[in-house]
């Protein structure tokens, strides 16, 4: 959370000899937070908007892209929850297999099979192109948000789980994700 | 959270000259919370059950209906998460396009197309009417809960995002939503 | 959270006469937590990995199985959120009807109808068996995580809601769920 738009909220209790109030850190260096958190772990919040670069239509494994932008903050949580919120209505976030890219291709095949597009589709909303209304439907099918447990500074996913960005539009565009971390500091 | 069933939990730290414990507020005036929170922002919880009035079968934009019932509480959070939990199994909550009502109509068309209903449907569970089993399936497809980031007292959704209530039953009925707000006070 | 892998994080504020820092409890007896929480309720976290025994392919009501493994911890929260995270990509968690098992059977019928399997399926990913790729798709349709409000030490679900484990593979296997509880202590 070292970007301008980021904020770290670390709640630190009073201790002797001088009682102190909760201290909120807005975009301060995390070094200070680290050093203090080691002594007095308390409730902590961090929030940051990250950007995923444009991806072509289909399902993409983006675990590393996301971790690379939040790892320093994530590492400060002993236990908590990471919430990822995609601010768009024509793409989605889901958790699925992280190894074989065929699984992602097959999932895209499924989505296209189940949601009609083009001449055969019954949609009224067509002004933004034939891929737009199907994109909205797919977005609600898979959802735009994920909540993942944090344990010992890491996302506590299963061995084969990864975070997918599913881009449902034909034209690749950058996608914004609001990341909110909440938990107990290390 | 000024209704009888509401509760605000605001954790306030000790400060000079008298150290104080965490203070829990149950249905108290939020004025007190506001004034103190400005000085000593700390972890805060608020929980309230709101009711959405009956909606006819289909997808409905309910962002304003929800905000009107939680805005005073929401405005007290600098950073956090808002959790909305629909206490029903034949309707759903989803986030999708907030502008063109055709998108909502087309989504209802899709749901009806994908989940068979009536004579052609293979369902065993038919005692509650032909629309009941399809409603349960649609409820799990879109889900009954949303988690949305809070930033500076507002839901931090994308420009085109809104909250939809999807009513899957033919008979409109009021729907309960448990709203839980959690974060750092302003 | 009395298992070896569990942890309770209870934030307790300073109070007279001696200001104290936040206290983190790692796998300690919950008795201590209970007695203190009654006096000074504060932000609290608990996290635990539980195991659901093997279930045959289909949808299963597992509310009791889960509650039996988290009830003592859950009962310590006055207000909060329970997060359940299935660490697998070929099963799912959803909330749906808790009474008539026909609803679960019909939902399984729907999933099998909508996701092709076997000779008629277009999947590239077939090495792990004909049921594997359909299982991945179903997992993203229903999702692998749930967030449920906690009120007065209990999951605040609707009268007819229950937690379902949907097993999408033919071979039953035990499934791990990371449970994270967060809220204000009783």
TrEMBL record, chains A, B, C:
UniProt protein name: Uncharacterized protein LOC111315213
Pfam families tied to this protein: YjbQ
UniProt gene name: LOC111315213
UniProt organism field: Durio zibethinus (Durian)
InterPro entries registered for this protein in UniProt: UPF0047_YjbQ-like (IPR001602), YjbQ-like_sf (IPR035917)
């Amino acid at each position: 959370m070292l970007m301008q738009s980021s904020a770290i909220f670390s709640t630190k209790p009073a201790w002797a000899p001088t009682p102190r109030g909760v201290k909120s850190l807005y975009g301060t260096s995390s070094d200070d937070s680290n050093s203090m958190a080691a002594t007095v772990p308390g409730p902590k919040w961090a929030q940051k908007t990250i950007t995923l670069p444009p991806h072509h239509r289909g399902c993409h494994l983006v675990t590393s892209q996301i971790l690379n932008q939040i790892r320093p903050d994530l590492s400060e949580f002993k236990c908590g929850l990471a919430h990822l919120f995609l601010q768009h209505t024509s793409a989605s976030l889901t958790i699925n297999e992280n190894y074989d890219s065929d699984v992602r291709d097959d999932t895209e095949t499924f989505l296209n099979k189940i949601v009609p597009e083009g001449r055969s589709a019954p949609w009224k909303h067509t002004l933004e192109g034939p891929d737009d209304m199907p994109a909205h439907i797919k977005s609600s099918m898979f959802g735009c948000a994920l909540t993942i447990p944090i344990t010992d500074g890491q996302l506590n996913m299963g061995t084969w789980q990864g975070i997918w960005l599913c881009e449902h539009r034909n034209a690749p565009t950058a996608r914004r994700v609001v990341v909110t971390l909440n938990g107990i500091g290390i």
